[in-house]
């Protein structure tokens, strides 16, 4: 891996290079995606069956779009027993963590007859998108469904593209069933997002769409935002390790590669105050890459978006970490919890040398759907928050309104909204 | 106001009619908005100064784009003393309510050395958009700035279009100053949104953009979503009153008009189980409209989007209320708190006959920036939540990782991610 002195200029260049990967920069696909969305809005089932034939090579119709109980049973027979066991163990942890995110309605009252509060309600219908293709990530199915379930969403539907044989991957089906999905539809791509946003004869309209996908899926989600809610738009995976001279170079190298293997667009960055560590990590990386099964993807990812940055001071290193706002951040310093207090921007923070990133991907409990591409500056991990919404509660008695009603009339009149003023005044007209 | 029997068909037609007002349906403006955004991204200050000249007729440059302390002082001299007093009173209530929305970091630990948690961090920089034009809403300035301030946002900047004389409305300036804004820039429209999203020489790039605006502003916000965060996209204002035979028709009529006066696209709907009330409200509305200063806007709004719906039962009425998911909902029934328990979808719920909607606009404390156009099914009122974000915290000791590390390796291998498996295995290689 290349080792670079962390200067202001280097930081700016790296940031620019990373942001190139943003799904916002793919304007060229937008026309195509909008066309798909309009077609699905107009022709509904007919459009999604047609796209599924063209893009996935599968014959899907109103009779077979919904995954049946028999298909799920078949999936349980096919899936590795060991995977099922580990899915169930992971589910316990994921549920336990997300249950702590529950939010509650509250109110506050005053004796004159004022009640002010906030009512928390779960969304009613949610759609989870699960990508198809060769890479099958049952963990991602769990991470998207569990928070909706914990929030109390009444209906959770899933869409995923079928294979040519019209089947869905068994591990995906088993994970969805274990997590508590209500229905699974065989449709993928931008057409699935459009179907969930507007509804078709077969696919129900939902209130929110979550889940990762390719560039078509990401752009379709952005296009339907406002008609429905969406989670944040996922970009390629990222890991950043902030380490000092106390870090174990072998651990750091292995962790960097764990994200680099996802995708040629994935990014793996070490920021360290130790030139020694930088060189050892670079050497360890070389050693590992040669042995790993996804070595070609890893090598491309490292060449494109992999960096080892040597900083003059820990403050400078931390400033860069906050500026890049990585999806995953490992802190491997002498006092990692102290370092953590200085971190403003990161999707998930892994504290200490045994807190390896894949622990969070599969098992620990926190969600692995995290803000990417610098969006950790303003977005949060997927959570129960994503599946609830709030309503303000306002209640005043006559006794409470009377002493302040003239203030409200005053304010309304300053804004030249006389019907507003009238609606207050009418209550005290005699 | 027209009185309609609430049938399934009527409900569907009304819903369709209301959704026509969605800012998502204005595809024709998108090209123009994208052009403005691209121009501001490329030419920065030069582009925004040029647009401000063309659209607002004002000469703005790097020297005068920032509102000065002198201009603010001048605004305080110009503004009505009574308005300042009522702004200060309202601020006390708004702050008090929003302080209750604060969220806190938490963690949970296990003795084997596991720490899992969630760190809450305020966004660093936020941009508040304030529309210009004839209608001046200092209340809206307060409602957008206070939650950011309470959340702990470090820098809150505001943009608003200047008048031809290069000045900003004094009430806007005073409200912004009282609420605690850090800087105010004289730029409006889609060009202001682009400037806040990407930064120019004069206007800083922010993490999130909030605030209402015309169709250009709404579409620009949607276009920059992902580069920055945005609040929900505001549509025209709405009020729905759910009332039974116990309601005072004069109060109900006045409240319906308080929203109808906002805009020809605003919607005012009464749903009632009482035909008697329906007729009395319709009559009262006629009486009021004749006297109100904004009667032309009100009449158009009522003709386009005003309805009195007579339902056969309270259950049917409530189902319609939940389906339409209004921005503002007043409950004027015999037992309004019991009715409230059945409401799933509404931006703000005003409970009881003295809880008139304008009380919430100006004074009570809850935010008046609310989801419109059916989006209360999945969006929430603007709140402190909008100005914070979360990071997961994951920390495992060696002792905690050892008993489960083979499960993680197993899961990773099932997903064919061997570098993930390696990063766990490397920690136990001897």
From TrEMBL, chains A, B:
It catalyses: L-histidinol + 2 NAD(+) + H2O = L-histidine + 2 NADH + 3 H(+). Keywords: Amino-acid biosynthesis, Histidine biosynthesis, Metal-binding, NAD, Oxidoreductase, Zinc. Substrate binds at residues 237, 259, 262, 328, 361, 415, 420. Its EC number is 1.1.1.23. GO terms for molecular function: histidinol dehydrogenase activity; NAD binding; zinc ion binding. Its cofactor is Zn(2+). The active site is at 327 (proton acceptor), 328 (proton acceptor). Binds 1 zinc ion per subunit. Pathway: Amino-acid biosynthesis; L-histidine biosynthesis; L-histidine from 5-phospho-alpha-D-ribose 1-diphosphate: step 9/9. PROSITE patterns: HISOL_DEHYDROGENASE. NAD(+) binds at residues 129, 191, 214. GO terms for biological process: L-histidine biosynthetic process. GO terms for cellular component: cytosol. It holds the Pfam family Histidinol_dh. PANTHER family: HISTIDINE BIOSYNTHESIS TRIFUNCTIONAL PROTEIN, HISTIDINOL DEHYDROGENASE HDH. NCBIfam families: hisD. Belongs to the histidinol dehydrogenase family. Catalyzes the sequential NAD-dependent oxidations of L-histidinol to L-histidinaldehyde and then to L-histidine. This is Histidinol dehydrogenase.
């Amino acid at each position: 891996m290349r080792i670079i002195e962390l200067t202001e200029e280097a930081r700016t260049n790296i940031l620019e290079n990373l942001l190139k990967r943003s799904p916002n920069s793919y304007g060229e696909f937008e026309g195509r995606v909008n066309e798909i969305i309009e077609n699905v809005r107009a022709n509904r089932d007919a459009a999604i069956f047609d796209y599924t034939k063209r893009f996935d090579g599968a014959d899907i119709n109103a009779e077979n779009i919904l995954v049946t109980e028999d298909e799920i049973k078949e999936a349980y027979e096919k899936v590795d027993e060991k995977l099922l066991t580990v899915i169930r163990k992971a589910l316990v942890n994921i549920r336990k963590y997300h249950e702590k995110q529950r939010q509650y309605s509250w109110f506050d009252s005053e004796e004159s007859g004022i009640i002010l509060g906030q009512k928390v309600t779960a969304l009613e219908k949610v759609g989870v998108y699960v990508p198809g293709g060769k890479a099958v990530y049952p963990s991602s199915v769990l991470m998207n469904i569990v928070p909706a379930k914990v929030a109390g969403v009444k209906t959770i539907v899933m869409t995923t593209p079928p294979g040519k044989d019209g089947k869905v991957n068994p591990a995906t089906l088993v994970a969805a069933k274990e997590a508590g999905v209500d229905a699974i539809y065989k449709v993928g791509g931008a057409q699935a997002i459009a179907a969930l946003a507007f509804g078709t004869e077969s696919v129900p309209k939902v209130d929110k769409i979550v889940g990762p996908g390719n560039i078509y899926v990401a752009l379709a989600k952005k296009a339907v935002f406002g008609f429905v809610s969406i989670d944040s738009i996922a970009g390629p995976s990222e890991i950043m390790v902030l380490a000092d001279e106390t870090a174990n170079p072998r651990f750091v190298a292995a962790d960097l590669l764990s994200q680099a293997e996802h995708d040629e667009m994935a990014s793996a960055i070490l920021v360290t105050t130790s030139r020694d560590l930088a060189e050892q990590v670079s050497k360890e990386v070389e050693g590992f890459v040669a042995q790993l099964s996804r070595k070609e993807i890893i090598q491309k990812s490292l060449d494109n978006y992999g960096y080892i940055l040597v900083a003059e001071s820990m403050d400078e290193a931390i400033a860069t970490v906050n500026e890049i706002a990585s999806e995953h951040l490992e802190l491997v310093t002498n006092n990692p919890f102290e370092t953590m207090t200085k971190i403003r921007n990161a999707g998930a923070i892994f504290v200490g040398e045994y807190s390896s990133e894949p622990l969070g991907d599969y098992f620990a409990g926190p969600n692995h759907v995290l803000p990417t591409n610098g969006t950790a500056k303003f977005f949060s991990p997927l959570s129960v928050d994503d599946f609830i919404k709030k309503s303000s509660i306002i209640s005043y008695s006559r006794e409470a309104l009377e002493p302040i009603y003239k203030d409200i009339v005053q304010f309304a009149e300053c804004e030249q909204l006389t019907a507003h003023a009238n609606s207050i005044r009418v209550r005290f007209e005699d």
